[in-house]
Amino acid sequence: MTDPRLESLLQSCPDLRLKTDAGDLEHYGRDWTRRWAPAPLAIALPGSVEEVQAVVRWANAHKVAVVPSGGRTGLSGGAVAANGELVLSLERMNKPLGFDAVDRTLVVQAGMPLEAVHNTAKEHGLIYPVDFAARGSCSIGGNIATNAGGIRVIRYGNTREWIAGLKVVAGNGELLELNKGLIKNSSGYDFRQLMIGSEGTLGIVVEATLKLTDPPPSTNVMVLALPSFEVLMQVFSAFRERLQLEAFEFFTDLAVKHVTAHGAQYPFEQIHPYYVVTEYASADEAGEAAALAAFEYCMEQGWVLDGVISTSEAQAQQLWRLREGITESVARYKPYKNDVSVRISAMPAFLAETQALISGAYPHFEVVWFGHIGDGNLHINVLKPDDTSDAEFLGQCEHVTKLLAQVLQRFDGSISAEHGIGLVKKAYLASTRSDAEVALMRGVKRVFDPNGLMNPGKVFDL
Ligand code: FAD
Ligand code: MLT
Ligand code: ZN
């Protein structure tokens, strides 16, 4: 370690674990996007809040940029360190700190993996309901920093709904204790909510007080085959009217092609163009009867062609794999990902316009559609053909994203529903947030991070 800045870091924080091997710089310097070449200065792995504060104070003294890092499962380049930044990994701060049965809260360190949070909540007979396929690798700090959504938003909302308190080391090294687990608090600005979704640009989340809730009554999983895009929202309405939905997700035949090639089992005899996977409360006979009624009604209307209901927990997991395995199954094609949202009521018209745009724009590329349709959130993944260069592929996709951003603007939608802006969508932030809002974002950043060292260049440029 020859860099004098790192020598001084260790002098100010002697027990800090630092990594500088080439393999570590590569591993910790990128996220799931794989679009930027990692080039961090070093990786700091603090073991305590005090060490995080010491690192941030050192960064200010030496004007070194800091990239907060969780599980690096992010899909927007938020955790990428490609410009000599110090990566501050929370991976050693991964423990539960306390459960309160009366408050029904769980205090955790920010580096705790989401799945470990689920398991700890379960030990107390409760659930932490935010959930998605990266659960084994993503961290609760990263979930908070991106306001992660996932497959149960329709029932429980986004991460934002489940945070009762946060400890954050702000950009100047000061420790902020935000909301302290209170349910009611009308005492001025709620900085906890400001931190949620701020993608590491205002400070570092070091601890979180999570709200827990009762597990749902037993649920069943149903996969439906649909003839067309147009009927998707009608099927959604029919099911939502009759059932307590825990999830309502959609995917296409192309997604099925990739996910089954990756080991998922296909439940139907024929291939169909569109699919829905839904999970619903089925504690009693009435729940099951309502599910069958919804299914039969949709069949009668010609909106559903086939369906299968899980009869065991193992089968439910198999059916979920058709949806949850998509991201991994297409990863080798370096997919260009759009993650957009509109109000549910605007979805039918938005889907029609977007489908026309996308099918015309990418005649030679495979486009895999899926997403949290019950939340108005579409994932459009364009797969890179092996014989097309990265630059050419990116150029074409960026061109189409500009057009998509115009459509979103007209529908009052969002260019990022749940993955965050990071680097990937920085150029499009202003398409769905006003100039006044972006100017305020810059101003807020200056207050929390006066030297502009917290994840600089992410979300917007200063
Ligand atoms: P990272 O990738 O490490 O970081 C993400 C951002 O948060 C970066 O800007 C980083 O700087 C910042 N950050 C990380 N930790 C902290 C901290 N302690 N303090 C301050 N800032 C911090 N996302 C969804 O919303 N819904 C999904 O359904 C979903 N499914 C996915 C499925 C797969 C298979 C994969 C690979 C990803 C999926 N994602 C999904 C995206 C990703 O998992 C989420 O964005 C997740 O919240 C990122 O957590 P992470 O710990 O990996 O964060
Ligand atoms: C999902 O819904 O599966 C995730 O957001 C991941 C992705 O979009 O690839
Ligand atoms: Zn998603």
UniProtKB/TrEMBL annotation:
SUPFAM superfamilies: FAD-binding/transporter-associated domain-like (SSF56176), FAD-linked oxidases, C-terminal domain (SSF55103). It is an enzyme of class 1 (oxidoreductase). It comes from the Bacteria. Keywords: FAD, Flavoprotein, Metal-binding, Oxidoreductase, Zinc. It catalyses: (R)-2-hydroxyglutarate + A = 2-oxoglutarate + AH2. Residues 36-215 form the FAD-binding PCMH-type domain. Its cofactor is FAD. GO terms for biological process: respiratory electron transport chain. Its EC number is 1.1.99.39. GO terms for molecular function: (R)-2-hydroxyglutarate dehydrogenase activity; FAD binding; metal ion binding. Pfam families: FAD-oxidase_C, FAD_binding_4. Belongs to the FAD-binding oxidoreductase/transferase type 4 family. Homodimer. This is D-2-hydroxyglutarate dehydrogenase. It comes from Stenotrophomonas terrae. The lineage of its organism: Bacteria, Pseudomonadati, Pseudomonadota, Gammaproteobacteria, Lysobacterales.
